[in-house]
Write a structure and sequence with these properties.
- The chain has 7 helices and no strands.
- The chain is mostly helical.
- The chain starts with a helix and ends with a helix.
Length: 201
């Protein structure tokens, strides 16, 4: 919901940093995989009870996730890079609920439901992108991307805000997970309604 709104604010500094990194020979894929390693490390840290360390690694992951796109824009975006980026994103997203599930057995059910909601959201997102691409639809609401980015109630900005809240208030994980899983379900319904409108012919 907020991703498109914050892009004009975060893209200029990211693009400057990305251009500098590209000039040093850093590639977008390097940053994608480094960010994935940090994000998975954050989930592992959370699972072992080091929640504040986990939060730091989560934030580092998001920084590198923004920089890989900036480096790609400063050089030449590739389809392979876009593929790695989205796979790394979803691997990171599902790892954080798993980390909280490992942290406390009481978190198991909400972690499972949140992970399932991420799978549904991701499926609707990628299915929409596939059909939109086949129909030649384009959008720059989320900046220049390798494929069509459909908007929704629960997007990256909202997900990271929830992850931060979970790390700051870990005892509230179950409540936050149930609420956000519900928002993800609403997003799937919303995106499905958009699909009906866009793809019915």
């Amino acid at each position: 919901m907020f991703d498109a709104k914050i892009r004009p604010l975060i893209d200029p500094p990211l693009n400057r940093l990305g251009a500098g990194l590209a000039g040093m020979g850093v590639t977008a894929n390097m940053l994608t995989f480094a960010g994935l390693a940090l994000g998975l490390g954050g989930a592992i840290a959370i699972g072992f009870g080091q929640v504040w360390l986990g939060l730091s690694l989560v934030l580092a992951n998001r920084l590198l996730d923004g920089l890989d796109g900036a480096v790609a824009r400063a050089t030449e975006p590739t389809d392979l890079g876009g593929y790695f980026d989205i796979v790394a994103d979803f691997a990171f997203y599902v790892s954080i609920p798993v980390g909280f599930g490992v942290l406390d057995p009481a978190n198991t059910l909400p972690a499972l439901l949140l992970t399932a909601s991420f799978v549904l959201t991701g499926t609707s997102f990628l299915a929409f992108a596939t059909i939109a691409g086949a129909r030649g639809l384009e959008t720059d609401a989320h900046g220049k991307k390798s494929f069509f980015y459909s908007t929704g109630l629960a997007e990256g900005t909202e997900t990271i805000a929830v992850f931060i809240a979970m790390c700051v208030f870990p005892t509230w994980f179950a409540v936050l997970a149930y609420v956000y899983a519900g928002l993800c379900l609403v997003t799937v319904i919303q995106r499905s309604a958009m699909a009906v409108q866009q793809f019915k012919k």
